[in-house]
Design a protein that fits this description.
homodimer; Tetracycline Repressor, domain 2; elongated; DNA-binding
DNA sequence: CTACAAAACTAACAATTGTTAGTTTGACTT
DNA sequence: AAGTCAAACTAACAATTGTTAGTTTTGTAG
């Protein structure tokens, strides 16, 4: 298997996103990032254009990954709404397991985007709208409870968006089917 | 009804927390806060000791409110675990409706606490541990599904901690029983 | 009208910020 | 041995940061 090794720029982004996760974009300085790599701040600029570009790279990459994933789910045929919800949950778990720090950065620091803020917001609105449509169809078909879809949307999405906080700490839980149990709790509740 | 009018310091905190909610503690400057009040940054120091004190006031006040609320729930007798969960949900909805910006600040900027970080973390650990105990009792008594309590805890708490994002935008939903519907979705799920 | 306290102001500080310019290092290739 | 090129370095900048000191304004009670 050929493995393209990490470029220096990717290394910087990876270092930066770990710091962003801990303290947030605004509280992390270029000197912090440089120090974590064992070099001086000015050296970073041989590889990246600006601090803002690091943020933008992180958020847009993940945002587009969600957009693609949701498009596939929407396009899936012969599938119940419940199964679509399960696939949404799976999408979040997968992306979060592979990029916990990027997820933290997207969730917490999107408002510091400068050039690409509007684009990001559009991706997010579209994603949420697709989610809403799936819920509405589920209610129409009688597969979901007839509760205000906004409440369901809020409730599920809040949990999924917080996954980055828990996944890195709970390797144990993950290995034994986080996905199945999480789906069970979110879809069928907790009462016996 | 006698109404103690807001002190200047409280006005500053209220202005600051709204800005913290939008951009986060680190991205808000003392000049931002001052400008929002129509005065100069130096004037703030007639009323407060430091930027850090503003943050600390906000977070500790809310943190202690949760601690007190949870203590009452734990102490309640002749109550099922389900009813305890409902009271936890009610506690979050109430505090969040009354202090959406403070909730945002506590959730997003606690890591920037300097003097009182350890105290805050202790409050939070105790709160989560009480929550966990309630879940375990519920499972033992057969009132809750026998799912790993960590997953239930994570799932419910994620939703409750995100309430600050939605409550200010959804006056409509709130008036017609947010509490009941949210409890329904979180406790009994969404499948029909 | 005067006195006093609250709350604003101006001016400045030392530290830190993101970033640029120009230079040096060090590992390969020829 | 000489040349090349990525990637590090030093030094500096202009702007912004939280905060302080000292002074003036404002409103109210005697």
């Amino acid at each position: 298997m050929i493995q393209k090794s990490e470029t220096r720029k990717e290394e910087i982004v990876r270092t930066a996103e770990a710091l962003f996760k801990k303290k947030g974009y605004s509280a992390v300085t270029m000197r912090d990032i440089a120090q974590a790599m064992g070099i001086k701040a000015a050296s970073l600029y041989n590889h990246i254009q600006s601090k803002q570009q690091i943020l933008s790279d992180i958020i847009i990459q993940i945002g587009e990954q969600f957009t693609e994933g949701m498009a596939e789910i929407v396009a899936a045929e012969n599938i119940t709404s419940i199964e679509k919800l399960e696939r949404i949950i799976k999408l979040h778990v997968q992306i979060t397991m592979e990029n916990p720090s990027k997820m933290a950065t997207m969730n917490n620091d999107w408002m510091h985007l400068e050039g690409k803020l509007d684009y990001y917001l559009q991706l997010r609105r579209n994603y949420e709208e697709s989610f809403r449509q799936i819920l509405k169809q589920g209610i129409e078909k009688g597969e979901l409870k007839a509760v205000n879809p906004e409440i369901i949307l809020f409730s599920i999405l809040s949990t999924l968006r917080s996954l980055y906080l828990w996944i890195p700490k709970r390797e144990d839980i993950i290995k034994e089917n986080l996905l199945g149990k999480l789906s069970q709790v979110m879809l069928t509740g907790v009462t016996a």
